[in-house]
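User: Structure please.
Assistant: Input sequence and predicted structure:
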Amino acid sequence: MKKITRKKHLEMRLQSIPTHPKPKVGLEQYTTPSVIASDLIWNAYSLGDVENRNIVDLGCGTGVFAIGSALMGANLSVGIDVDEDSIDLAMEVKDKLKVDNADFIACDICEFDEPFDADTVFQNPPFGSQKNADSGQDLKFIQRAIRFDPQVLYSFHMASTEEFLIKYYNDNNLEITHIFRYKFPIPKIYDFHTKEKRDVDVIVIRAELK
């Protein structure tokens, strides 16, 4: 596999990863756009969090962070998601791209108990962009990520919860080192959506276990 040396080339490769095949409203499934995923992975790579590291992508969907990390030289990337349709598609994509250092598991992240020596965790959990969404899902993801005992965690959240999250991370022995800010596009994929697209302000927190 040819090494990727430019962020634009990574973005182009990630553009080939399809969105969720059958989006399920209860899972608040929104695919991370390739421009955001490539930017975050590139930053993580620059900080030494990807190359030759073991990566876990929690709530991986169709595998953009697991596959992207693998393309950037991860030792092994494992994507975990409860949605079997998305996992099946992620497996097809990794085979098509000939990404041998990535694997995917269909499982509820809270029930996953296989031992895995993770260095870096990426997660784009349900972060509450829907009015009727279950609150606190992103916090459950943080707690699950901590159980992997990684060196570094990258997690998506609503920007409006930043002040609360800073305290929450500190209370859970996570030292925030970086906060990345994005406009996350929410497309019209569910019946209750009234606009073709709306942008939501999100943050991605990079934290290290103390």
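The chain is about 30% helix and 25% strand.
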